[in-house]
Structure formats: structure tokens, C-alpha cells
Amino acid sequence: MSVKEMLLGIPDFTTSHSGVDQLGDGCRIDPTVSVMRFGQRFNGLCLADGVSIYAHTRLVLGDVEADPCVGIRIGARTIVNVGGYLSGEGGLDIGEDVLIGPHAKLLSAGHAIDEGDVVIARNRITRARIIIEDGAWIGAGAIVLEGVKIGRGAVVAAGALVRQDVPAGMVAAGTPARLIRSRRGDAWPVALHRPLSWRSRVASALKALLPDADKRR
Questions:
Q1: What is the spatial distance between Cα 15 and Cα 7, in angstroms, rounded to a whole number?
Q2: How far is residue 52's CA from residue 7's CA, in Å, rounded to a whole number?
Q3: CA-wise closest residue to 100 among 130, 58, 61, 142
Q4: DSSP letters for 101-130
Q5: Radius of gyration of the chain (CA)
Q6: DSSP label at 211?
Q7: Rounded Cα gap, residues 183 and 170, in angstroms
Q8: Which pTM value belongs to this model?
Q9: Which of 16-20, 199-203, 212-216 has the lowest mean pLDDT?
Q10: CA nearest 76: which of 22, 27, 33, 137?
Q11: Which of 152, 164, 179, 217 has the fewest Cβ atoms nearer than 10 Å?
């Protein structure tokens, strides 16, 4: 049995794919991967070496001339599993060695809903860059909304809806997602989610201004 016959369900190597502007060495892209884009620009969709994009993934740029932020960058050795929806309409930067689970959605653009026409489709498009740093994992079916940053080595649990940044090394889960722990097993301090009381804020400010106060007692 050949190596190719052993790698069932894994895309073949390719040196080009329709809609991709820059393609590194050793990339695998399934023939069913589709790119939606129009307009002329030659650095809108760039894949580094060793990127793998599995079947039925949709890469969306839309009008590449609409805004300078429009674009998708995917770092080396990153894997995008089946059925993903990756929007670069507001900018999408994915680092190296990132895992994107099946049917995950990264949505860097939307529509304004509180202004203009009652018909949503006639209102302006909102755009904000999504950043996924090196070594992160976006779980199956997770949704990451515009403007969110997922830190280095962070984990977004399967099915999570992420509206706020996830710091490096943290695990976020739920709808909407919240930080539940660090990857090393330490519980995320509940106190960090609670705003400080007025008295606590004043005490902290005084302590910062008078760092030697305790020593003079």
C-alpha cells in the first residue's frame, strides 16, 4: 500500500488553489475548499508553508478593495479542519501551529443594526480584525466574533461563542464564552471577574502613592 493510499481523508499537496494569492511549500488544500472574493489585489489571501485546509471550508474576503484591512493570513503548519468558515472581511490573522476544529467559524465582519435602514442588508458592514496567535486551538463548532484576539496557546472549547479576548494559555468555554482555567489546571481566579469596590479602589490607590506606609508603622 502506498503512502497516499494510507492517508485517507487528508488533502493532497498542491502548488496553487483558485483565489489564493500566496501559497507556501507543502500546503494541502482539498479541492472542495472555496474562496469568495472580488476586486483586484494580490496579497489578500496568503498561506505559509505546510498549511492544511480540509474539505468544504469557505474562505471569505468579499470586496478586497473595500478596506485595507480585508485579508486572510494563515501561518505555517496550521490546520483548518472540515467545514470551516473563515471571514477575512475585517482582517483575519492566524498564527503558526494553530488547530481550527471542524465547522468552526471566524467572523471578522458583520452589519450595523442600530442605524440607517430597517433592512439590515442595506446598512454598513462593520469590520474588526480577528487575531489567533501561535499554537492556539479553536474547538469544533466554536464561533469567534469580530475584533477578538485569541492568545498564544489558548483554547476555545467546542461550541463556544467568543465575544472577548482570550489571554495566552487560557481556556474559554460557553455561550457566551468565559475564562474557566489556565491550561496548567489552575482555576481562573473568580475575583478577577468581580469589579473592585469603591473602598478597595481607594485603598489600592493610597497604597500605590504611599508604598512605605506600612514600614513606618
A1: 19
A2: 13
A3: 142
A4: -TT-EE--EEE--SSS-SSGGGSPEEE--E
A5: 21
A6: T
A7: 6
A8: 0.82
A9: 212-216
A10: 27
A11: 217
**Residue 68, phi-psi category: left (phi > 0), alpha (psi -120 to 50), beta (remainder):** alpha
Cβ atoms of 152 and 136 within 8 Å: the answer is yes
Strand order in the sheet with 143-144: 34-38, 58-63, 85-87, 105-106, 143-144, 161-162
Q: Which residue in the list 17, 56, 103, 111 is annotated as catalytic?
A: 111
Grid cell at residue 141: 463548532
Name residues whose C-beta falls within 8 Å of residue 176's C-beta, 6 or more positions apart in sequence. 161, 162, 163, 164
**111 is a catalytic site residue:** yes
C-alpha cell at position 162: 467568543
Displacement of CA 120 from its chain's centroid (Å): 25
Taking only the tens place, the pLDDT of each residue in 63-117 is: 999 999 999 999 999 999 999 999 999 999 999 999 999 999 999 999 999 988 9
Cell of 22: 500566496
pLDDT tens per residue, range 157-210: 999 999 999 999 999 999 999 999 998 765 555 434 444 444 555 555 555 555
64 vs 92: CA distance, rounded Å: 13
> Distance between CA 30 and CA 7 in Å, rounded?
13
The model's pLDDT over 149-169, given as tens digits with 9 standing for 90+, comes to 999 999 999 999 999 999 999
Backbone angles phi, psi at 189, to 5 degrees: -60, 120
